[in-house]
Amino acid sequence: MNRMKGFSRRPLFSVDAEGYGRSHPRRQHWMQDAIHHVLDQAAVEVGFEREGWQTQFAGDSAFSVLGADESEPVLVDDFVRHLDSGLRDVNDGREAGARLRLRAAFHYGVAVPARGGFSDRGAVETARILDCGPLREALRLSPAAVLATAVSREVFHTVIGGAYTTLRAEEFREFRVRSKEFDDAVWIRVLGGDVHALGPLDADEPPAAPAPEWPAAPAQTPVPTQKTGMIFEAPVHGPVIGVMNQYRS
Asked: Which residue ranges does the record annotate as region Disordered (predicted)?
């Protein structure tokens, strides 16, 4: 057995449409066509060769393994920007409830082609990120947006934190996601929206930096009352900071 067969670390991403299951068959057909169209268009705009990707489709979702020479920073920056633009184009003139709106997850890892699609941790982790509650809620609570994205820890720290894109870390909001065997932080961004203004999104957010230690208040001298002899102490208040399947090539 060749243990290296199919092994390679690649940029991985997956998309899924909001509300596909509640849509009537004709709209589902349109959504599938529109997803293919916007992915093709975004790939062409950034110079990716989508026909060379390894892709698994399942109705309204698509999981893709990019080519070895295709840029991870371009994927999470330029490609996403063109994907958002393409979605706005295909939704032009459609009522709010009839628009195509996507969630997208980005990761970097191993996804080996298998009989049922893909195997290995990279494929599984990308699926967990795409399906996480905070990403679903971020899109649901941003009615003007058509695309919400989530990136893995590795993508955020290496690509975003390393300043290899035009994106700023402040555009993302960190969440802890626990789903089956997956337990890690993800970073979510809503294009055309402010993810920080959305309130709780059904997940554990990371604790903020600990509050500074304030010096102990000076001891208060008890002051007896004239009538009862009871002793009252003046309370001292300091600042309190709260934080917290089908395989295709």
From this structure: 201-222
Phi, psi for 175 (deg, rounded to 5): -135, 150
Q: In this structure, are residues 12 and 123 in contact, taking their beta carbons and an 8 Å threshold?
A: yes
Q: Where are the domains of the chain?
A: 9-206
Please, what is the end-to-end C-alpha distance for the chain in angstroms?
A: 24
Q: How far apart, in whole angstroms, are the C-alpha atoms of residue 137 and residue 133? A: 6
User: Residue 66 pLDDT > 70, yes or no?
Assistant: yes
What's the pTM value of the predicted model, to 2 decimals? Answer: 0.77
List, in sequence order, every residue forming a beta bridge with 246; answer none if it has no partner: 57
pLDDT of residue 242: 38
- Give the CATH fold of the 9-206 domain: Alpha-Beta Plaits (3.30.70)
pLDDT tens digits, one per residue of 93-138: 999 889 999 999 999 987 777 665 666 788 889 999 999 999 999 9
User: Structure tokens of 135?
Assistant: 């990403």
Q: Which of 144, 153, 151 is nearest to 171 (CA)?
A: 151
